[in-house]
Specification:
alpha/beta; binds NADP nicotinamide-adenine-dinucleotide phosphate; 7-stranded mixed β-sheet; 2 domains; Rossmann fold; 353 residues; methionine biosynthesis (chains A, B); homodimer
Chain lengths: 353, 353
């Protein structure tokens, strides 16, 4: 049996739990792997198995969360214990699908005790560089879903590096929201209109500044660069923000209302690109000695220029993929495809145990 | 130590051996895996280790092959024994980078004895369906390099299926040579001229009919379909051939000379596509109940229509990637990138042992 502790049971966590319940019998048949939850946690409680969490209990947990309650509302919840005490003597897989930094140190402790980690949560990899290496040494932590969700990005990059290839340049469009906005501008929308629409349709985070600041993209860039072996310190990647500093601290409602204040600078960049026959994209560019995250003018024949709408796109130019890059493209967010990435990592890890 | 037997030391085999020698120390440090050859074979002899083939011996083998000799010319070569007798009591990885069917049955025997297999050679997977399942059950055989060389295709597909996704449609351009030819037609070349040029530049197989028959693409289509779980019998995938039957059996020289006989039918298809505002591509299309390999008219906004030149491109439309597919693109041939695919598979397998 492969014991799993899952931290977080929000959108991605619920999709993951449903996928695990659905495929567990096939995985048992196909690979002889018996995936079993031994604990599931949200921000308020942990349901620990006795010794494992039954399928029925998983369904109960899903029902409780879908009803909007905390796990502490379940009779058998533990609220005063840390999950690390629930780790078994055999090797377990700890899955972090929260969005907090709270578990970073315990995850590193679990790794040093020989356990394995799978992450959709980017934060544990964006702390001090030493924590990144502690988590990832000997391939103890898999984190495919942190960049591009279910798209093959991290595993591909590690495969290239492990086989002795050398990364010359990674160029990537890693924000579906910012991709959507750039396409809207190309279709004639103003910047404020595009953001209002994206916010109303739920394409942005509840606070759209979480997307527009580029902070989430900067975290992905940091993870990619560190995966390349570049020892980038925490917070060393700065992303270009698409709104002026005076809008950083106002309420969401006020921010939305004052969005036209962000209009001019973005539209100027957009018009300049268009006048030069180029396109404007919000991209990440990583080379061995530079990391950039922000708006960039690209010539029309650039691989990332062809991107429309919310797809992610990642282009690897390496010593072996030199004249023509390897390019991955597709939806880079969404709870189902993110859970797919996480579960693939869990299965790959379980096959090693 | 992870023992490796490598069958074939041609273009891909030599690139692989060089990559293994180069990365072995890093792999040892990074994953605690000690990759060691215990035997290397070509069509004429086997060099068996005592107990392992030293790095110096690997360099000797590379020098002998680069000089155009057979391994039987080396003093310690074995020519009268089968590699299966060299398999150790512990689990070994057998790597087939030949282009023969000869090892199919022994590979299946090795798998049933608990060993693992890694293939760049498509043929072992294109025999009877029972042999395919015997080789691939429990994930015993990895074969990423058989489709798209170093591009992530097979692993991605297996990841989708393992996590419970459902493939609705795979559309793919899997022949660099045929991609090159289609682009040449778009640039105004005649079909015969395009083939002559591709042949002269070494872009085709020595006998260009090996490309133009579509047989190699049909093998890739068969492997993709079987990986999807479709029990396709051997030879059940028929590819559209780009030359008429009367040219099938003549010499290569005569074939090249009589190529204008193939001109009319291809150019008619090309002109019809262009007149309809479409593009002509040689593609593979797999759905749960159909497999097609051949020329197809695609609308200009189809994901595969944007392809130019010899790149491969694979588009997965699934239940989860429904509105927008996952698309992989890049060079799908070449000895270095093929060896990258093979070595990634070897490392992934070794991490499981
Ligand atoms: N959604 C996507 O498309 C996507 C794509 C790639 C990566 N990701 C990443 O995946 C992670 C999860 O995303 P999501 O969309 O599922 O977020 P979400 O819906 O907000 O869910 C977060 C979950 O984490 C739980 N949580 C918060 N603090 C916790 C703590 N200290 N201990 C244990 N659990 C805690 C929350 O508990 P409560 O239920 O009690 O609030 C909730 O169940 C995030 O890091 C996100 O960046 C998401
Ligand atoms: N090249 C690519 O870009 C590419 C891409 C994807 C997949 N592949 C596949 O990778 C495989 C190798 O390709 P390649 O380009 O390296 O071919 P290659 O240069 O022709 O090399 C084939 C090797 O196999 C050896 N061989 C033939 N019969 C054998 C036998 N019965 N036992 C042991 N060894 C035998 C040959 O021996 P001799 O040296 O004695 O002739 C030679 O060393 C093929 O299946 C190919 O389809 C190639």
């Amino acid at each position: 049996m492969t014991p799993i502790i899952q931290l977080g049971i929000g959108g991605v966590g619920r999709a993951l739990a449903r996928q695990i319940v659905a495929v567990a019998p096939a995985i048992r048949r196909r690979y002889g792997i018996d995936l079993r939850y031994i604990a599931i946690a949200d921000s308020r409680g942990i349901i620990a198995g006795d010794p494992t969490v039954s399928e029925e209990q998983v369904h109960q947990i899903l029902a409780v969360k879908e009803a909007g309650h905390g796990l502490d509302s379940m009779t058998n919840a533990i609220t005063d214990r840390h999950w690390i005490e629930l780790l078994p003597a055999t090797i377990a897989i700890v899955v972090d699908v929260t969005a907090t930094s709270e578990h970073t140190a315990p995850l590193a402790a679990a790794v040093s005790a020989g356990h394995r980690v799978v992450l959709a949560n980017k934060r544990p990899l964006c702390d001090e560089y030493d924590l990144f290496t502690a988590l990832t040494e000997r391939g103890a932590t898999r984190y495919e879903a942190t960049v591009g969700a279910g798209l093959p990005v991290i595993g591909v990059l590690q495969g290239l590096l492990d086989t002795g290839d050398e990364v010359l340049r990674i160029e990537a469009a890693l924000s579906g929201t910012l991709g959507f906005l750039m396409s809207a501008l190309e279709e004639g929308s103003s910047f404020a209109e595009a953001v209002w629409k994206a916010h109303a349709l739920g394409y942005t985070e509840p606070d759209p500044r979480d997307d527009l600041s580029g902070a989430d993209v900067a975290r992905k860039a940091l993870i990619l660069a560190r995966t390349c072996g570049i020892p980038v310190p925490a917070d060393a990647v700065s992303a270009e923000s698409l709104f002026p500093p005076q809008l950083a601290t106002v309420s969401v409602a006020e921010f939305l209302q004052r969005l036209p204040e962000a209009e001019e600078s973005v539209m100027e960049r957009f018009a300049a690109a268009r006048a030069a026959g180029n396109v404007l994209r919000y991209i990440t560019c990583i080379t061995p000695d530079n990391i950039e995250v922000g708006l960039r003018e690209l010539p029309a024949d650039h691989p990332l220029a062809g991107l429309r709408g919310p797809d992610n796109m990642i282009s690897f130019t390496t010593r072996r993929y030199h004249d023509r890059p390897m390019v991955i493209r597709g939806p880079g967010a969404g709870v189902e495809v993110t859970a797919t990435g996480v579960l693939s990592d869990i299965i790959a890890t379980a096959r090693e145990l």
